Amino acid sequence: MIRSLTPYLKRYKKLLLVGFILVIFKNFFQSMGPQIVREAIAHLKVTALDDSWYSGLVQWLHDGWDIELLFVFIGLYVTIEIFHGIFLYAMRQTLIVASRKIEYDLRNDFFSHLQKLHLQFFQ
What we know:
By secondary structure, the chain is mainly α. The chain has one domain (22-109). It has helices at residues 2-11, 13-42, 55-62, 67-116. The protein is rod-shaped, with a radius of gyration of 27 Å.
């Protein structure tokens, strides 16, 4: 089965190669988001004043934890997710275009083959 698809895959090897490279970049940026969140959480120094849920946050903000660092993490996370979205969109468009072209060629070759068959084949 794969052998019969090889000529069609070879016709669009550049498009497929670009698509698979985009898959690698998309996966790279997809894996970076949770790592940024992990680093941001690792830099948090939350100590609770009492049992209320917000007291740790208040203590953390008043302890002089650099709020600018928080914005750096947020900006970095948003940037990473934007790149992830761009590569996801480009990957999907590239691979969908390649698959549609392969499908079109397969269909045309199939109908061309059907037209060459003798009429007795269909009876």
